[in-house]
Amino acid sequence: MTLRRSLAAAALATALALLPNAAQAAESYPDPQPITGQQIIHDPTVIHLKSGGYVAYSTGGIIGARTSKDRTQWDDAGNAFAEPPSWWYEYNGTGDPWAPDISYRAGKYWLYYAVSSWGTNHSAIGVATSDSGLPGTWTDHGKAFTSETTDTWNAIDPALISADGKLWMSFGSYWTGIRMIELDPSTGKAAKGTKVHHLATRPDLPYAVEGPYIVKHGHYYYLFASYDACCAGVNSTYKIRVGRSPTITGPYVDSTGKPMLEGGGDLLLAGHGRYIGTGGESVFRDRGQDWLAYHYYDAEDSGTPKLGLNALGWTKDGWPSVR
To answer: pTM of the predicted model, to two decimals?
Structure first.
């Protein structure tokens, strides 16, 4: 999810903020794990580096960076890039990137990110590589995939997964929801002639679902996505929902069998107490344990967006749960 959103999304956030929100009042959702240091973040993607320690990248700055030695104390580490690549300015006047995704493949780190501007799907997903994964070491390789105003999808919020011997990227925000394409593993960019698969949407405008992340567990692929509206501080209504599919391209359904293409999705985490608007999520694995990373808006700190980390467990029925 971006720090900027369409006027429709802002209107949705305002309208929903006026309604009773049972999820925010619920006490069944666990609080995030305690962390210290630099907690401010938006749309976090986290990885345990091969060299030891952790790095988190996020929306803000030129892809803001945080580092940690123990996953508890986080320090500001500047930005992924020293300056914006020139092509970013084709998509917004400030060279402002959003919603990165970091992964490790083929002996190097890969960083995907989005460049767009408020209220348009004239957008691009870029790709960069690094030998260490640390800020300041990234080499940008340009556009991996784009969307234009004539498209019915929005090329932002990328997330990668390898499946069935192929490399896939889910993405999407509003504009009919979540999509997926195949990537060329040698370039990290859209495979020639790739089909744009449709994974999830909402039944009504403005199709408020975005920020996909897919993981494999057991015999299923699990699609996590952020529903409703972010970026409105304590008025944000973001929440994380999930569905699953035996095949990477879907169809994804929730535990009741409702397709995510029809608005389905089990509620995994919603705002509660001081932790408002939980979303912008990603999943990383650390020493055999899955972790959910996300941002929330701190109601006790003027709605400042902060890093949330929760261990991700799995029920006997194979559904994720936060703890």
So the answer is: 0.91
